[in-house]
Amino acid sequence: IGVNSALRIEDLAQLKVDDNLLRGYLYTREMKTGKEQSFEMNDQLAKDIKEYIKRNNLYTGEYLFQSGKGKNKPITRQNAYIRLRNYADEVGVRYPIGCHSMRKFFARNYYEKTGDILTLQKMLNHSSYIVTLRYICWDDHAQIARKETYI
């Protein structure tokens, strides 16, 4: 979900199984900004989430990502980081990765594929497109590389 939604780990941790999620819609209030985010998920992500819910025997009202400490407690940022690092190690990722990497990965890839900085700005709830460009580390060198990639 992290690489397909641009949500922060704090927001992912608060997701609960509900009718909207099961119908392929994601609604959340961002912990950092208090702003609401809502969108329809693509078919593959919705399918993956349904399979995850079924595989983990989750029910309506339960946290999607639970901590290892007791039933129906949200995963902590620290625990999510440890799990993500373990998964990355299992599949051979050898570069630094953290929970926020998922959001940045989404943002950078979205911009490289679409070039639509204004929509990305809105998705990330940034105050300006300049903030968004800085966030994805976009500079003149990246612009040149992008141009060469699409030639």
From TrEMBL:
It comes from Candidatus Fimihabitans intestinipullorum. It comes from the Bacteria. This is Tyrosine-type recombinase/integrase. Keywords: DNA recombination. Signal peptide: none annotated. SUPFAM superfamilies: DNA breaking-rejoining enzymes. InterPro entries: DNA_brk_join_enz, Integrase-like_cat_sf, Integrase_catalytic, Tyrosine_recombinase_XerCD. One of its GO terms (molecular function) is DNA binding. PANTHER family: INTEGRASE_RECOMBINASE YOEC-RELATED, PHAGE INTEGRASE-RELATED. The keyword Repressor does not apply. Residues 1-149 form the Tyr recombinase domain. It holds the Pfam family Phage_integrase. The lineage of its organism: Bacteria, Bacillati, Mycoplasmatota, Mycoplasmatota incertae sedis, Candidatus Fimihabitans. One of its GO terms (biological process) is DNA integration.
